[in-house]
Amino acid sequence: MTDLIRRPVGAPLDARPLTEPVSRADVAAFTREMKRRFPAPERGVSYYLMLGVLIFGGCVPLLWAATVIFASAVDTGNTSLLWVAGLTAAMFGLLTTTILRGVFPSIRRRTEAYRIARFAAANGLEYLNRVDNPPLPGWIFRSGINKRATNVVRVARPKEIEIGNYQYTEPRGESSVTQAWGYVTARIDTPLRDLRLLDVTGDFTARGADAYGIRALFTPAVLARLATPRGKLDVEVADGRLFLYTSSPASTAEPATWTHLFDMVDVVSSTLERWTPRDR
Question: What is the pTM of this model?
Fold first, then answer.
């Protein structure tokens, strides 16, 4: 594994903080400091009501049912009941694990955040553990409620780039769905009207006044460089900014992901620069 993350423009970045061993004590201290510097909004009454419903309406009944069924199986010697008890216990374990993961960040997530923060510090980059309601003009940032960007890294030179992970809640009637994205955004010099190119490495849907003309610039050679194992890639231009959206986290502790993201920004930016007013 290389110790450097090479960029098309600018000096290579030191990747070692992303992969070096870290101690649990350092991760715990970092987590406490992040909670102090980036406090999460107070959770509303509805959150605690839902948590209570899951615990007392789900976990407790499942645990009680598993205990009763198991006791009955032992008393009667009915092996079928043992299977039912085991299945009920497994459901209890799954629901409990899901709740705990939602309430308490896993050690893996805390460690990853610590590694990304060390990576940013080692390379003179800005790190923000959490940004609520990020003021960005991209379409994903205008949707839903409970909007939050995490593990945000900002590169100031030689090209302004921001990389982070983003999620928001999308109300759907009486229920809701959490949408999660990885994103990269950068300033662009090319004067472009707003556009969106959806799933550029797949079906490739174009939206916007200039979208279909620009779509032609994304030749098979360009698309091959954009191909990513991290899910589909959407491209947007909004208010003079380029946005790349991936269906998996962008800010990670994987050096290869950072290399690919910087390369994608360069590829898309240079492709869009070929679009000039006379092409309209």
Answer: 0.77
What 8-state DSSP symbol labels residue 56?
A: I
Q: What's the CA gap between 169 and 252, in Å, rounded?
A: 22
Asked if the model's pLDDT at residue 45 lies above 80, the reply is no
Query: Reduced to 3 DSSP states, what percent helix, strand and coil does the chain have, rounded to the nearest 5?
Result: 45, 25, 30
Distance, CA of 83 to CA of 81 (rounded, Å): 5
Q: Which two tokens stand for residue 272?
A: 């869009």
Residue 148 pLDDT: 93
Beta carbons within 10 angstroms of residue 125's beta carbon: 18
Digit-coded pLDDT (tens) for 16-32 = 999 999 999 999 999 99
Structure tokens at 31: 């987590």
Q: What pLDDT shows up at residue 280?
A: 47
| Residue 78: partners with Cβ closer than 8 Å, 6 or more residues away | 72
Residue 41: which residues within 8 A CB-CB, separation 6 or more?
132
Please choose, from the candidates 149, 234, 140, 243, the residue with its C-alpha nearest in 3D space to the C-alpha of residue 187.
243
Rounded Cα gap, residues 225 and 125, in angstroms: 26
